[in-house]
Amino acid sequence: MNIDELKNTWNEDDSIEETPEISIEQAKKINLPLEKMRKNMRKEFWYTFVVFIFSFFVVAICNAPVKFKMYVLVLVASMAFVTIFFFSKFFKLYKELSNPALQTYDALNDLLMQFNLNKQYYLSFYVSFIPFLVCEIILVIEVIPWMRELNLLYIFMILLGFVVVGASVVYLSGKRWFEKFYGKHIRQIEDLLIELKK
Can you tell me the distance from the alpha carbon of 39 to that of 36, in angstroms, rounded to the nearest whole number? Predict the structure, then answer.
């Protein structure tokens, strides 16, 4: 086999494995949900930032023992570090949404896989706050005088009830929040992918 035959074979293989290109009309349909998701990501970042600033401020000015304030500040700071970790993952997706290379079916399919991965990060983010909230409840129990006098069984039941109810509420609200801000836009992209397959 000579060089010309190898080149022809190579070119034939390339043409067989080409991925479908996205038309200009389909690109416009894709950009709309992607831009809405980027806007929601920015909003969510600023909401979270304001909540943490407000939390630090409230703890700093509240009328409580210094030891209690210090413990709560450490917990809120730890929550901020966990939030920074998850937002770093979220930011990678944010940058990917503005990637102009999303012009093929495969690139869009990869983006959809990133959405599903980020959904898991998102739910993990909410669930990761449960231990912090339990620690805060323990601190509150220790600070309120009449609660310190409760039987150990009552305290255990309060904590267990808080974990069960709190975990359910946190998980379901995280799922609902994700659906409201991102789920419907992800479904629009899934529909476009199905349309591209036809």
Answer: 5
